[in-house]
Design goal:
A five-stranded mixed sheet has the order 2-1-3-4-5. The protein contains ten helices and five strands. The radius of gyration is 19 Å and the shape is globular. The longest helix is centred in the C-terminal third of the chain and has 21 residues, at 140-160. With 223 residues, the chain is an alpha/beta fold. The structure holds cobalt (II) ion (CO).
Length: 223
């Protein structure tokens, strides 16, 4: 219980510090939100999306799950996306994965953790889809890193394939989809340079992703 008490104390200090800089900060925040970004990332405790990219409360709408997956029957993720895109009108969706992702590793190793294995099954689909390219890579670590990257690419494609995003593009709404990857050991995000802002760009990116690995430098992501 002492640990929980410390959390509440630390929260009061955090709020005081923000108010010292900007006395009306929380009052203003309570009236409305207008974030420009939607973040779809892994639930991993070692990643703090908002603070690690220098944003304050109110600046980013966030959805997180194990291994940052976007699938079209996940009502939770779809509801977040629909609200963020249609109501809040965010201009950017960032799908962020990370190297060393436990979810990706479990899928890659075909490990058994229980119910979560069913969720991670989608990563095995990605793995099978890219099996030939993965097998050409020299070792386990490189393959696992690449699968973490491929998982981000597949999820960006998955975001772009939702009716929510396609309707937004049809309406002429400005909406960029980005793929980022984080290295926990460095604390640094890398833009995978797969940003798309239309269905045509999404289709071109998808074609590039499915190019045989030998047409790209090893470990690279499509530009
Ligand atoms: Co993870």
């Amino acid at each position: 219980m002492e640990r929980i008490e410390r959390l509440l104390n630390s929260n009061r200090r955090w709020a005081e510090e923000l108010k010292a800089d900007d006395p009306q900060f929380f009052e203003r925040l309570s009236e409305s939100q207008s974030p420009e970004l939607l973040w779809i990332g892994c639930s991993d405790s070692r990643i703090s999306p908002t603070s690690s990219i220098g944003l304050l409360p109110g600046e980013m709408f966030v959805h997180r799950n194990v291994a940052n997956l976007v699938n079209h029957s996940d009502m939770n993720c779809l509801a977040v996306m629909q609200f963020a895109i249609e109501v809040l009108k965010v201009e950017h969706v960032i799908v962020c994965g990370h190297y060393g992702c436990g979810g990706v590793k479990a899928a890659f190793d075909d490990a058994r953790y229980g119910l979560v294995d069913n969720w991670l099954r989608y990563i095995q689909d990605t793995m099978h889809k890219h099996q030939a390219a993965l097998e050409k890579l020299p070792d386990y670590e490189t393959r696992l890193d690449r699968l973490c990257e491929l998982n981000v690419i597949e999820q960006v494609i998955s975001v772009g394939e939702t009716t929510i995003v396609q309707d937004a593009w049809d309406r002429g709404q400005t909406l960029y989809l980005h793929g980022w990857i984080y290295r926990i050991g460095e604390g640094i995000y890398r833009d995978m340079k797969i940003t798309v802002r239309s269905l045509d760009e999404l289709n071109a990116m998808r074609t590039a992703t499915y190019k045989p690995a030998e047409t790209r430098p090893a470990g690279s992501v499509p530009a």
